[in-house]
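Letters spell out the chain; the tokens describe the backbone. To illustrate:

===
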Amino acid sequence: MKTNSFVVQSEFIRHCSQREEALFVVSHNASDLLSSVLKAVGGGVPRHMLEPMTDVLLAMNKHCPDLLAAGLMNMVTQEGFPSGAVSRTQKEAFAKSVLREKVHKKRLQELVQEFYLVCRMMNW
């Protein structure tokens, strides 16, 4: 995964509320984008690459929260996604916490890192 592509995606998402074309593109690709972000957060990337994932989650939460909520609820229902190390309860808690953080990037970053560690079974 290229970090730069996630930076571009988060910038593009920020234009959803201003441009109908941007919303169209994001809504038709949100599932794939969110799946990639959640795989990364689930342990698919080194820890230092989590910030761009946080940026995408924050941008989606601010500018297209319905798409984010649907994608997170889909993650909750998929067994073993994004990691077999997390329970449904842990995924539900993560999803609810992410949906609450619409402004505070630092807090969202902490949530993402905590979930990442749980997924990698590094929370002791």
About this structure: The mean pLDDT is 88. The first helix runs from residue 3 to 13. Residues 10 and 59 are 6 Å apart (CA to CA).
